[in-house]
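Researcher: Please generate the 3D structure of the following complex. Treat every line as part of one assembly.
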Amino acid sequence: MAGRGRGKTGSLTQEQLQTLGCIGKDIPQVQTAPPPTFPPLMSKPVKLETTAAQSYQILWKEAYINHMRDSPYFISPKVTNINSNLQSYSDQWASAVENAKTKSKADFVWRMMPTELHITQKKRRIADGDKVVTKKPKNIDDRLKVLEEKERNEDEKDVAKASSDSEHEEEEEEAPADEEMDDENDYGNSYFDNGEAYNEEDDNLDDGPVY
Amino acid sequence: MSIEYANLCSVVVKQVFGETVQIVADCLFCAVSRTLPAILKKTNLSRKEVSTALAVLIKYQLVVFAPCATNPFLAEYSLKREEIFYILRYPSYVQLIHSKYGPVGAAIAEELLHSGPQTATNVLLKCIANSEIKEKIETYRENFLAMVSDNYLIRLPQLISAEEDPVPKLQTDAYQYFAPPDINLHFISEVQAGKEKVEKAADAGIYWHANFSRFHQDFRDTVMIGAIERKLGTSASECFKYILKQMYERTDPWQKDCSNPFTFAEIKQTIEKKSNNLDLIKHLDQYVSLIADDPLRFIRKIGEMGGGQYVVDLNHAFEELTLSWFGSVITERYGSKASRIFRIIHMKKYIEQEELQKEAMIPAREAKLLSYYLFQDQFIQIKTIRKAGGGGTGPAKAFFLFHFKPRQSVRMILNICYKALYNTIERSNFEKSEHKRLIEKSQKLDSIVATMKERGESAEYIEEILETLTPPEREILEKVKTRIKTLSKAELTIDDSIFLLQMYLHHSKVETSLTTKDKK
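Model: Done. Output below.
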C-alpha cells in the first residue's frame, strides 16, 4: 500500500494528520514488525454459491489443464543431474511415468512461421551428448586368442606363399626373374652393377668431367 | 502493465505450456519485441528449446512476428499480453457457446482452444473422431457455419509471401474475416475412409480461431442486462436486450463513449416482431422511459424524432456499475459507515474533513479513522489547496479536501485483483503438489474400478479395491478437493470483477492503453 516503509507515521505527513484530526493518541502506532500473514477480517467473506454454469466451467478448466499437460506443447526443461552416475529411485519412477504417457507428435505449420524456428537435424553434433560413443569393454583373453590365431594364420600363409612362389618361378620367363629381385625397389635398375662393363674401354672421355 | 499482471501472465503460461515456454514468454513480456538471438542471450536456453517455445506461442496466437525494420530477413517477436490473460476465460467462452449452440458447438470451440487455430475440415474431422457426442457431420458443419456467421469464429491472416521468404507475410482483408469456408462433406468422408489426405481439402490454408472480442461483447451485454434485471425487473431487462440488438445494427460494438442514435419506433418494431412478452409490448414506452430516467442512465434521450431518439451511454453505464462495485468492496472491508463516507465524497466531489463528518452523521473520531483507512488504501485522495500566506510568519495553512479519482482507484484495485488471481492459482498449484501422491492414487483407483466394472467384476472385489484408500486418506482428499474447488470458484468471481473494471477503463472518456485493436 502507499507509503509502506517510508516515514515514521505511515503514508501521511504530520500536517495532513493534523488536518485529519489525528493528534496525540490518535496518531497510528509506528509499525515495528511486518503485518501478520493472515490479518483478521472485519467481516466474514460471503460464501460463494456455485451455479450450474460455474460448475461446468470449473470441470472444463481442470480437463483443459490436464489435456495441455499431456500434449506435446507442454515443454519442461530437461533436468540435468549433478552426479549422473548416481541413479535415484525417483528418477526411475519419473521416467517410467513419463514413458507410460505416449505424447502425440507436435503439429506445427512451419510455412507460416519464420524459417529460423524450424530446426532440422541435418548435422549430428558431438556436443549434443545424445550419442556418446562408449568404448567396448576389453576382454584381454579373447584378444590374445584372436592374435594367436592371426599369427598362426600368417605363418601358414607364409609357408603357403613360399611354396606357391617356387611354383611360380618355373612358370614365369627369365625376364621376370629380374623383376622378382626388384620386386620391392628399383635397386637393380638404379644402383646394381653386375660387372659386365668392367673391361670395356671408357671412350667417354669427351663427355666431360665427372664429379 | 503492472508487475502483478506480469506475474499472473507468467503463472498462466507455466500452468498451460510448462516452464520453458514460461521463460521465453517472460523474456518477451519485458520488451516490446525481441529477435531470436536476443532471446537466446537473455534466457540462456538452447536454440532448439527457444525455437520450439516460440513455435508453440505462435501456434496458439500468443506471439506475433514481423520483419525487423533494419533487417527484413530477421524476425522480431512480440507477445500479445492480453491474449495470455484470456486463457483464464476459456471455460467461460466454451460455456457461452454451449448455452447458445449446444454440445456440438462446445465441441468445436473446445477443439479450437485445445489445439490452436485449424482449418474447418480439420476441426470437423477431429470433433467427429474425439467427441462422445454421436452427431452427424452435417450437424457439425451447420454449427460451424452458424458460429462463423455470428462472428464467434474469425479467420486468421493468410500466407501471401513465397515459401522461401525467411519471414512469412500474412494478411487478410477485413471483409474476409467472417467469410464462410468451403466445407466438402464428401471429401471429409473420404478422408475418414483413408482415401484422401486432409491437406488437399478445398479450405486448406484458411485457419480459424476463436474471436475473443465477440465473446467479450456478449459478456458485457450480460453484465448490463443483469444489472437492469436486478433493479427494474425481467420485462425491463428484456426491453434493454432488444435495445442493445438495435444498437449493434449501426454502432461499432467497441465504440467508446456512447452509441449511435436509434429511435423508439425502431425498438417497437423489433419487439413486436420478436418478443412474446405482452406486458412489455403493451407498456413499451413506459419501460423505455423508466430505463432512460433511472439514475443508472444506461440510455439517454437526445431528441424527439421517431417517437424519441436515444443513445446507449456505455461510459456512464460502466461508471455507475464500477462505483456500486467499489461501494460493495469498501463495505466488505471497512463496513457500511466507510461506504457512506465514500458515497458522500463521490457526490460532493471535494469535501473537507469537518464537513464530511457532518454530512455522514458519523462520530468525529470514527469518521477520521475510516477516512484515514480509505486514504491509506488509495480509495480516496487528498487535494491540498494552500491558503494565501500570513506574511511568512508561522506555517503556511492549507485546505485538505478529500476527493475521488476513479481511474487511479480503478487501476489500483485492478492490480489487487490480478494479485488475488495469481494467489489463488499459486495456492491451487501448491495444494495439488502437496497432495500429489494422494490425488494420483485416487485417480489410479478410479480408473481401475471403472475397468473392473466394465469387465463385470463382483461388487465385493470392487469394494476391496476401494478400501485401499483408507478413511483418513479419503477425508484429506475430500478437503483438498473442496479447497481446490473453492479456489476455482474464487478465480471465476475475481475474473468477473476484472472484466467489469476493464470495461470501465475501455469506455471511460480518457484515452487508455486498451485500444480497439486489442479488443478486436
